Amino acid sequence: MLYFFFLNFSNFNWFGNLPNLERLRLSSNKFTSLKGFSNIKNCRAVNNIYLDNNQITNLCGLEPLSEFPNLKRVDLSHNSISELNVWATVPKLESLTIYQNQIERIISIKNLPNLKRLSLSDNKIRHLGKFENLPKLEIIFVDNNPITSFSDLEKLPSLIKIDHVNWDAMDEFDLEDAIEYLEDILLQPDLDETNSIYGPFPKERFWVNRFMEVRFINDRTEIYIDDVEFMQCKRLVLNIPIEGVDILDDIKSIDEATELLSDSVREKSAYTKEIPPETEFWAHCSNLQAWYKNNYDTRLIHHSLAFHLLKELTHAGDPIAKHVFKEEIAKRYASGIPTVREYLKMEGFLSHLSDEELASLSEK
User: Fold this and answer.
1) Cα 214 from Cα 11, distance rounded (Å)
2) Residue 262: pLDDT over 70
3) In the chain, where does the domain assigned CATH 3.80.10.10 lie?
4) Cβ(2)–Cβ(21) below 8 Å
5) Separation of CA 308 from chain center
6) Residue 258 DSSP symbol
7) CA gap 172, 169 in Å, rounded
8) Which pLDDT value is given to residue 275?
9) How far apart are CA 35 and CA 58, in angstroms?
10) Is the dihedral of CA 14, 17, 21, 22 positive or negative?
């Protein structure tokens, strides 16, 4: 990966001859347009470009990015884009992130044959449509947009979900028209629980948020971070006999519960009970969603999953994970649970803390 942070770059006159470069991070500069990216030569292996926190207003249809034949992910979040017009073919692009811009109007989004994820959250979009030649697009994130109408969704044959529609932005007539349109093309609006729209496909994929997804594949539950497989979920804590409930009254984390059950209840009366794989899938989805809704409080899921997930989410750019990662390490180490403390040491998580933070923990 090549980093150019906070260098006040605004254009490229020429850049290149890095045939093995895969990731190019140009965050927090002063780019206003993608035009200069056509001057990047012989960097054909680049598959990730990060352009978040710049001043970009002109996407040039993404045409300059067509110079990267292996490009899979582009991050254009936190810029100043007001109109979205994407027309150039970027053949392998799978994920396009444009949240937290100033987008009011979509002119066109087309000719991205491998695009799967489109993040448009935190903009000013009122009409969601103008889609064409996006045969693999599966999910669109639209939370915090004042959307009042839709079109061209029938042109998205692989659509599984439009995530977090703000139904409250619609008046009574807009809502009636939207529901009629969606149902006519066999999409399923959920106005109560998830505030989302579902495609006419089996709901065997669950998006916890724009960074984390749970998939049910061949009777297995798998977690994906930023569309990359992270791990397979092995099992749940399945059965707590009724006579063991009282000992859990004072626990403060799943890890404490696991140790208590291991030391007492399981020795006496626990037994194994098979859970159907699909039921287990939805249980994992529920657990991970609760974890996210509680700002990734690592007390809520087992430490062997929580900290590695939190680390990957931080690397993927999840702002909540970035904010709490070090805080959770310090907090849980200070909690004094021996298995958690030993795990954080052995897995190298304490290396993410400064010398001053480590000294503070040593005093506790």
Assistant:
1) 39
2) no
3) 2-207
4) yes
5) 15
6) H
7) 10
8) 76
9) 8
10) positive
Residue type, 61: G
Angle between helices 338-346 and 319-334 (to 10 degrees): 120
Q: What are phi and psi of 140, to 5 degrees?
A: -125, 125
Tens of pLDDT along 205-261? Answer: 788 888 898 888 778 888 999 878 887 665 555 444 444 444 444 566 676 666 655
Q: Where are the alpha helices (DSSP H) in 206-272?
A: 254-260, 266-268
- Going by the DSSP 8-state scheme, the letter that residue 353 receives in this structure is S
Beta strands at 48-50 and 131-132: parallel, antiparallel or unpaired = unpaired
Interacting residues of 315 by C-beta distance below 8 A, sequence separation 6+: none
Give 20: exposed, middle or buried? Use CB within 10 Å, 0-12, 13-18, 19+.
exposed
Q: How many CB atoms lie within 10 A of CB 215?
A: 15
Instruction: Please tell me the pTM assigned to this model.
Output: 0.67
Shortest CA distance to 255 belongs to which of 310, 304, 311, 309? 304
Alpha helices, H only, the chain: 172-184, 254-260, 266-268, 277-293, 303-316, 319-334, 338-346, 355-362
pLDDT, tens only, 154-187 = 999 899 899 999 999 999 999 999 999 998 888 8
Q: CA 230 to CA 284: how far, in whole Å? A: 14
At 357, phi and psi to the nearest 5? -65, -40
Query: Looking at the domain that runs over 2-207, which CATH code has it been given?
Result: 3.80.10.10
Position 257 scores a pLDDT of 62
Tell me if 35 sits within 8 A of 58, measured CB to CB.
yes
